[in-house]
């Protein structure tokens, strides 16, 4: 039988401590990876064409002072400044339509975010739910549309405006974890869906709009 000496015990303890230290360092590094919350995005001007604002959070940054060299490649389109609002972030002000690259350095790492600023345009030419057209409801808003319904099955038909392509219609179904695909022109049961989402594409711009049915107030 192998004799375990004090030296061997000390060696084993030291080895264990070293492994724990390495594992802890790797875990900390993974948790504090420096990056923007996303690499690119679209920001819309307000419906009156005036500037809009948003926040781009920076993962791995603990203090606003760690963010250096903040700049926009096209400040006429959008500007960025550092803020600390429930986390370190860049406060982005979109001024006019166009594209720009927002960049900064965090803890020595260079970060870039490609921003496209758009003026909102309603992509629906027609949004037929049964025999009623709801397209104009999206003329000035991107918020979710509430459609009052009796709960009876209705046919959902979408006609996009010129230049726009309807990519997909997805439904958030009661009791299901994943959204299901809805065919354009399909007859649907309003009671079955929590939300219906429409995705449009026009060149490099993607527009996502949604509606939900309200069947509670219909007698």
Describe it for me?
It is a single chain. This protein is mainly β. It folds into 2 domains: 35-118, Cadherins (Immunoglobulin-like); 124-214, Immunoglobulin-like (Sandwich), CATH 2.60.40. It has 1 helix and 17 strands. The chain has one helix at 6-31; strands at residues 35-36, 40-44, 52-59, 67-72, 78-84, 88-94, 98-106, 109-118, 124-129, 132-133, 145-148, 154-160, 165-173, 180-181, 186-188, 193-202, 205-214. Strands 11-17-16-13-14 form a 5-stranded mixed beta sheet, with no helix packed on it. It has a 4-stranded antiparallel beta sheet with strand order 1-3-6-5, with no helix packed on it. The chain has a 4-stranded mixed beta sheet with strand order 2-8-7-4, with no helix packed on it. A hairpin with a 2-residue loop joins strand 7 and strand 8 (109-118). The longest helix is centred in the first third of the chain and has 26 residues, at 6-31. Residues 25-30 have low confidence and may be disordered.
